[in-house]
Amino acid sequence: MNANHLPRLGRRSFLLGLTALAAAGPARLAVADVAPAAQIMDRRLVVILLRGAMDGLHAVVPYGDADYAALRGELALKDPGQEGGVLDLGGQFGLHPKLVALHGMYAQGELLPVHAVAGPYRTRSHFDGQDLMEGGGLQRLESGWLNRALTHIPESAGQPARTGLALGLDLPLLMRGEAPVGMWAPPRPTRPEPDLYARMAELLHEDAVLGPTVLEGMRGRGYAMGALAMGAAIPANQGGFTRLAAAAGRMLARPDGPRVAALELGGWDTHAGQAQRIDPVLVQLDRGIAALRDQLGEAWSRTAVLAITEFGRTARANGNLGTDHGTGGAAFLAGGAVRGGRVLANWPGLKRDNLFENRDLQPTRDLRALAKALLRDHLRLSEGAVAAAFPGSEDVAAEGGLLRA
Amino acid sequence: MDTRPQIAAVRFGTGPRPDAPLPDDPVAWLDQQTRGPGPALAPPEGRDAPASLEEGYTAWIAHDASPPPPGQASVPTQLFRAEQQAWMRHLLTSTAPFHDRLTNFWLNHFTVAERGGFGVTTGFPGFLREVIRPHVMGRFVDMLLAASKSPAMLYYLDQVASVGPNSNFGRRSGRGLNENLAREILELHTVSPAGGYTQADVTEFARIMTGWGVERMRPPFATVFRPGNHEPGEKTLLGKRYAEGPEAYEAALRDLAAHPATHRFLATRLVRHFVADAPKPETVARIESVLRDTQGDLGEAARALVRLPEAWGPPLTKLRAPLDYVVALHRAAGGTDPAPVLGALNALGQPLWNAPQPNGWPDTASGWAAPEPMMQRLDIAHETAGRFARLDPRQVLETAIGPLAREETRTALRRAGSARDAITLVFASPEMQRR
Description:
The complex is a heterodimer.
Chain A: H1 8-23, E1 44-50, H2 56-59, E2 60-61, H3 68-72, E3 87-88, E4 94-95, H4 100-107, E5 111-118, H5 126-135, H6 145-150, E6 164-167, E7 182-184, H7 194-204, H8 210-229, H9 240-253, E8 260-265, H10 274-296, E9 303-309, E10 329-334, E11 365-366, H11 367-378, H12 383-389
Helix pairs in contact in A: 1-7, 1-8, 7-8, 9-10
Chain B: H1 4-12, H2 26-33, H3 53-65, H4 75-93, H5 97-109, H6 118-121, H7 124-132, H8 140-148, H9 151-156, H10 168-173, H11 180-189, H12 199-208, E1 212-215, E2 222-225, E3 235-237, E4 240-242, H13 247-257, H14 260-274, H15 281-293, H16 298-306, H17 322-332, H18 338-347, H19 371-387, H20 393-400, H21 407-415, H22 419-428, H23 430-433
Helix pairs in contact in B: 4-17, 4-18, 8-13, 11-12, 14-15, 15-16, 17-19, 17-20, 19-22, 20-22, 21-22
């Protein structure tokens, strides 16, 4: 994807071809006939960043812990089988009742909730926590662990889509770095005609930053427009996250499509009125992962989804029926490639002495162990590539057994 | 043709307007904006005065007692939206754009964001009008003191929740320190990590500032010091001891403001903002020495920035962030309506006064030049051109980029099939996207 070598006239027609794709995306311009699929790996990885610190004790409820109900007070959810009760995960834990689709995946052996998990940081600051969760190091880094992983997955010359795909208008730190990644965001109501895009790109061509960035943007749009034009239209009126997840699934499903996607879902910072505020966010997460599965179709069987948050929340409710920034929390692994249908937890217990600093769920498992396992066992990256994704994690072994053999 | 007046308007200003001729003497024009109190900032439309803290807090209390029905904005949020409109209207029409750019710069340095909740939004009119604007040409220490004690900042970085664990209230309630504000003042507002502080310094600084909080339920509806929340005993920050009591916070802030690492950090950020993403060390050193020699006089620093030779040469080196970009588009077209500007900023990922994190918005091209965001920028150029399609595109070009226009851009304009397309091309051009 470099037009710099082209003479001016060739460049104009090159740009026009690109912009026609980027702007119009009719099926006849779609990308199906350009697929060198054989070289692209077959496995899919989706990472969902739950920004704002999801309360793991509210999403994956340890109802079987004798101290749970008293500790949580009015925030406690009822046992399975009762009205408004949690959805059982085998006797000790239950999913929040809004996580209906995830519970269905659990029954299919495709959901693996992980509990009492945290990254290596204990700062309880959202942006420290998020930066470190996405950067993958012990200090803030300029690139993200998933982008560094992508640099070890070769792209073939004719590959129409980038291997990596970020959904939404922000390129998260997780996906920043040397590996170019595609992006998709819902289109604005009106767009210029292809010819005008081509003229704009031509004007920007010589700018060392803007020229290549716009070419990359048009390439990404062109692919996305072609890919999304196939099959039933993705409804624009559903929740923003569900729409992004559906678009991701549609593109990941294609033989020539991206293989690694990143999404973000905010709204978890429930300092007050948590029971009301967390429900719609859990619904979005549930519907989003279901939309991913539905759009991935047959490729779901080769997909792993990892949903992580920067830290958990206080084990007890605060004075506003909410929770404050905490430490240990929950994460989700989902997908046909995941060995699910069980809960992965070394449960520390909820007694006062078991809590971290008499306040938070004690983490007994490192988030990096999950991510490292997915890079090693799912994307099949070398030990060196995994180590480069998570510098300073020599003492954190990749978690074994997360995936189906 | 002399490019200096145009460069003054785009590099140090918010972009030219058709109804405001460029200055003959750009340095004198910029200097003049650094002296005196700065131009008046009108209250929100339909009001005699900006919303006071008391008004905001009263609306907040009423909101908590009976929240509005879903889909209807709360009164505190409405007050905040009105203030955003007032500032955007000012940015579009202001005749002191250098002053405005510095205001935006310091608002970003001392980021407080809407996502911090009503504690921030109710405090924002005061934060803009009393904390930041009066000090942009004053001394840094005064801005630091005002910001660090402002209700918006005390809420945004959780100082309102911090309690000395051995204070009366701390012992009674079991509550403890919140280090958020202490850490960010050190890391983001003053010495930066180059200052060499440790986690122990962060904790000690957090102890120093215990007791400082906000009274929002009753008069004085302002920042207060609560002795019962203050951690007893002497504290040590960066090797210096501070006695117990309310005065220690201000004393520590004064020492941080005067720290050489602070001067270096501020100089780097100023030069990066106005001159280049990766400024030369000697350029930074020039501004650093001004800050050091004038005890942090920001007006002197502003005048020194204007006198940097590197600040005057084409080519344009800096990529405009969405705020600079969209404001410049509307100014070039003579726009005065804040609503489409605020909408475009949301679309381009830089919603006004709502940065995702306390470190504020990125100030280098790498923070903005991602593929799909740049495509959306082209879409916004096209939308904005549609809003002003009745203008003469040649006039828009002359105002917006004038002597900085490349021949290629002029040719593209001549060949465009419609006024809207022509204006779109001017708006999308690299000359317009850079400053």
